[in-house]
């Protein structure tokens, strides 16, 4: 698997929203649904630990992943049909 890094913004959002690095990595490695995002990024959607996560990340030319942000909700995201 590619190297996964978390930028400063992602770390702050994950802390605010109680999303662990393990949950984020599980969402990226085995998403329930994957969708394109802005600026060539990807959104990985996953239902995990009783909540719906959306992890936005960038995949660079070498295959490394940088997590941009994380969102956690109790209801499913409308853009993801899980």
Description of the structure:
The chain contains two helices and five strands, in the order βααββββ. Helices cover 22% and strands 39% of the residues. It has 82 residues and is an alpha+beta fold. Strand 2 (33-36) and strand 3 (42-48) form a beta hairpin. It has one domain.
Mean pLDDT across all amino acids: 92
Q: How would you write the strand order of the largest sheet?
A: 1-5-4-3-2
Estimate the global geometry from the Cα principal axes: globular
- Structural category is alpha+beta
Strand composition percent: 35-45%
- Continuous helix count: 2
Q: Portion of residues in helices?
A: 10-25%
Along the chain, the helix and strand elements come as: EHHEEEE
Task: Describe this structure in a few short sentences.
The chain is of the alpha+beta class and 82 residues long. It contains two helices and five strands; from the N terminus they run E-H-H-E-E-E-E. The chain has a five-stranded mixed beta sheet.
What does the secondary structure layout of this molecule look like, with pairings?
Blueprint: E1 4-6, H1 8-16, H2 21-29, E2 33-36, E3 42-48, E4 51-59, E5 65-73
Parallel strand pairs: 1-5
Antiparallel strand pairs: 2-3, 3-4, 4-5
Key structural traits:
82 residues; alpha+beta; 5-stranded mixed beta sheet; globular
